[in-house]
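User: Sequence in, structure out. Go.
Assistant: Echoing your sequence, followed by the structure tokens.
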Amino acid sequence: MGGRVAGVFESAWQKWSRATTHAVALQEQLNTWQVTLEEAGGIRIGVDCVYEPENERFRLQATEVKVLPPELSLLVGDVAHNYRCALDHIAWAMVGRGSEPGRQVSDPRDIGFLVAKTAADFRSLVGKRLPGITDGDLAVVKSMQPYQVGEAGLDPVRLQDHALRICSDFDNDDKHREIQPGYLIPNGRATCHIVQGQDCEWGDASPPAEVPGLFEKDVNLGYIAAAPLGPDPKLEVSFRVMAHVAVTPRIPIAEWLERTYVFMEVSLRSLG
């Protein structure tokens, strides 16, 4: 990072630097994990083979999708938490240099960087979260808000893919609930092998014609033709897929890391 501006935002820069250190460590571990996946033939998907007698086939239904090892999930939480802390340090710096620098804050816990889903939310909360900040700082904060995505005429669904929205949501999940394991976005490569069967004559096991856009519990993974030979047809398969690990159903972790790094750096420089 070249010539950053110090001063009132120095602590925010330090938090940003800490977040990027964790981000680099996360990316390195993701790369190692990806190599391991390649060697194993992909991530193992738990599958329940449900027989459909009327169609003489098994429907392959995902029962378990293991995404990230716990240590990687913890690193994702560390990155999100430090970026969120950097935002809150920005908030305190803006309030401190604002139009009312001597103003007493009724409850310091109210001060924090506002991440708003709608313009109405922003208007109703900005006075409480960022009291007395300058018009210039207010303009920058507005430009950083996730709700601007919708107001710019872009796909509203992309609101939840905004760098700050993801960062804030992940940090909240990390603090208040179990760490969310993320999502799997397939890259189109899947393998399916039959382990054993009972009371049926099955056809070839092959990957589905269309790999699902997102792997999650109960998703349909395809079908295997099987003629019944007894009262209780059963099939056991091994199903693996190569995929990107993602923080939303559309954003791989690697992309989120890059986007958040750039977004935070640009925002800090615009405030400096």
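User: And one key feature?
Assistant: Residues 1-5 have pLDDT under 50 and may be disordered.
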